[in-house]
Amino acid sequence: MTFNGNRPLELSVTMQGYYSKLDSSPASSPLLGVGVGRDGAAIPLSLAVEAEKAQALLQTFSSASLLASAGLGMFCMVADHVLQLSVIQSHLWLRAALDNATHGLVGLWSWAVVIGLRKKSDLYEVLLAGLLASLIDLDHFYMAGSLSLKAAVSLPQRPPLHCSSLIPVLCISLRFLMWIGRLKDAWCSLPWMLFISMATHHVRDAVRHGLWVCPFGNTAPLPYWLYVSTTATLPHLCSVLMYLTGTRDVISTKHGVAIDV
Q1: pTM
Q2: Which of 3, 50, 126, 236 is the most core-located residue (most Cβ within 10 A)?
Q3: Are the C-beta atoms of 170 and 194 separated by less than 8 Å?
Q4: pLDDT for residue 129 is more than 80
């Protein structure tokens, strides 16, 4: 905290390191933030922390993120139109490869909307989200008990990872395992990444097959407009939930954030 003759008050705060809400006591996180007045006295940082939280929430609905979501919806429509071309439909391997690649790109794009692309590590996270969204389809081969693509796409019932009831179970289980293993806060977004990867995959498949909600069965196929709007909205829903659970706070400070008020 500095005082200037021309400016009544200027607060310059550097957030160093990162700490979860479960480990943010003064004793355990002495460098959570330091504000120093002209007389050398420490200044409480509650105002700076609240400002950072508000900024994280505002970024969820920034013009850039909304534009990216609109682009995601347009990409879904263009990709699905391309996949319906006869030259693609007539080749099983090409159709399967492009369909799976679309799953990956939708998951990748969705996670990019959630976290933004500000650092090199963000790019790695986005690529991992796309990979997870694509790998879900491997359960087709597991269910078929064969590496035959024809057998994998002609199953009598849907494979296990396509059960939408598993999404919250797997995400919560992953979060619990992370807590048991005392993994660093740098990994705190992993359950949410898994949520985005699986949810976007399931919603896209639901246009043809509906959602498989165990033990209640399958819903009716989703109308196409609902699929596109849901896919475009999911990143913002995820961001809000991350904010409400405190995950946003950890992500915003895990590499150090400078706040100037």
Answers
A1: 0.75
A2: 126
A3: yes
A4: yes
